[in-house]
Amino acid sequence: MTDVQGSVSSADRATQINKWLDSIPGRVATAILGFCFVAQIAYGLHTDPRWHWHAGTGKLPGDIVQEFMNEAYTQGKGVEAYKTYFSEKAVDNAPNTIDHQDGAPIPDEVRKIVVEGMDVAVYHTVGATRGQPAQDVVDLYEISGSGWIIRHDRIAQPAAVQRPAAN
User: Fold this and answer.
1) pTM for this predicted structure
2) What is the extent of the structural domain holding 35?
3) Which of 52, 89, 111, 161 is such that its CA lies 20 to 30 A from the CA of 148?
4) Is the same domain home to 66 and 135?
5) Residues near 55 by Cβ (< 8 Å), separated by ≥ 6?
6) Are residues 29 and 75 in the same domain?
7) How do residues 3-56 score in pLDDT, each as one tens digit?
8) What is the CATH number of the domain that holds 142?
9) Mean pLDDT for the chain?
């Protein structure tokens, strides 16, 4: 069967293509084409700037903030915690607090954590330490989709009950 222009039917064309693909040159060509596709995907995964793994990658916002607070308060590694969990372009409206500094562990009693979407609010009492009196604090964190803390706001007032200073 031929069409108006006298060319080969689609069934005959498919048979010719199948024969060519089964031949050695056809198999080599498909192998090269497949390698090119895989190489392009691998190159994209390797060089894509979105593939930066860090401490917050793949974690829930509440877990990111809890890990930051553990490192900054319990371990006393505020500088390292800040570098690990905060984005380089983070807006921090409380940059000079003791949880952003290294030193002795900071006594801290978390009273409530509220997570809504990518926002985390932590109500806690920070004990007297490093020359600072005890404070009741509400920290508000905004987490980016890639797991970085991109905004930090703090509301603080002197604690209702002073706790003894940590040694």
Assistant:
1) 0.67
2) 10-47
3) 111
4) yes
5) 64, 67, 84, 85, 147
6) no
7) 555 566 888 888 888 898 899 998 999 999 999 999 998 887 777 656 567 888
8) 3.10.450.50
9) 88
